[in-house]
Amino acid sequence: PRLLKVAAAQMGPIHLTSKREETVSRMIALLQSASSLGAQVVLFPETALTTFFPRHLINSQEELDSYFEHSELHESANTKPLFDEAKKLGIDISVGYAERTPEGKGYNTQVYYSAKKAAIIAKYRKIHLPGTKEPFEDPNAVNQLEKRYFEPGNLGFKAFRVPDVIEGVSKKGSGEAAPGKGDPIMGMIICNDRRWAESWRTYGLQGVEVVLCGYNTVGWAPDLWGTRKPMTPQQAEEEALFHHKLVMQANSYMNSCFSISAAKAGLEDGKHDLIGGSCITSPEGHILAEAKGKGDEIVFAEIDLEDCRQGKEKTFDFDRHRRIDSYGLITQQ
Ligand code: CDT
Question: Does the keyword Hydrolase apply (predicted)?
């Protein structure tokens, strides 16, 4: 077996007025409770350090910049304590945040930090940015201004090997091991990316074994989602939760990988309710563990990466069964 103890650190709401220090303290507390369960890898949500600020029209550059991080997270004064704790506990963490580059570009980013290496070993920048550049005219509509504040990610969907987490993997050559052997192969996606088959398949083609997905999904946003029929806010939230689980389960199955999803959940900024539903999903599409509420909560499971083999070697053995000569349209304009 290639066993790995993994956790999603779901976070309850964070507000425009929340202090970064308090948010990071909450993340450290979550990390400590994951540690008491023996977790080796802990995933935090998309924009874990702040409220989901793209719902607001922010005209002041200074205010906008205050929601971004301007240096690498393990070095930033705001977040170093979290990364120091991860290193001390020997737990890898993956954290979503708004990244401002030295050139002034904004990205919706997620990093993977290896505790043993004391380094960020992978970075992903969100590719499928939802919503609009301009706010809706209706002042009551829920906005999602990611296209205004972020550039589409420019790092692709690049799977990576995670060192030093599986016992018995030979140090030498683990980087070159075939998929299904050696160090785990992971990939990161962010929120809306999970609804796109292409995100998953691009990782699937690299032999991915665990997909990490942080998210902020609003329960009630008819201008964004569209609604075929009138729905109460509660029905809309149930529908959003259904679609979340649907894509996590179906895409894990179709790419023979585990997935971990971590929500920022609950009522942010007084009126924007985000769904919970953080979960860990198996390569056969089953939910192994799931959040019970919408507050800070650890969702934990021990997984065996060998379970990816069944799908990768049989039903979804891409080398034997894919028919790429029929898929041309997928990458045409
Ligand atoms: N944060 C994020 O990507 N949210 C989106 C909202 C979708 S708007 C149609 C999501 O996919 O959950």
Answer: yes
Find the 290 Cα to ligand 1 centroid distance in Å: 20
User: Which two tokens mark 86?
Assistant: 């991860």
Helices (H), 90-175: 146-149
Q: Outline where DSSP puts E strands in 191-314.
A: 210-215, 258-263, 266-268, 272-274, 279-281, 287-290, 297-304
Q: Write the pLDDT tens digit of every residue in 59-84.
A: 999 999 999 999 999 999 999 999 99
pTM above 0.95, yes or no: yes
Ligand 1 touching residue 216 (CB < 6 A): yes
Q: Is the CB of 224 under 6 A from ligand 1?
A: yes
Assess: ipTM above 0.90: yes
- What CATH class does 3-331 carry? alpha beta
Report the catalytic residues.
46, 126, 191
Average pLDDT, stretch 104-128?
Answer: 98
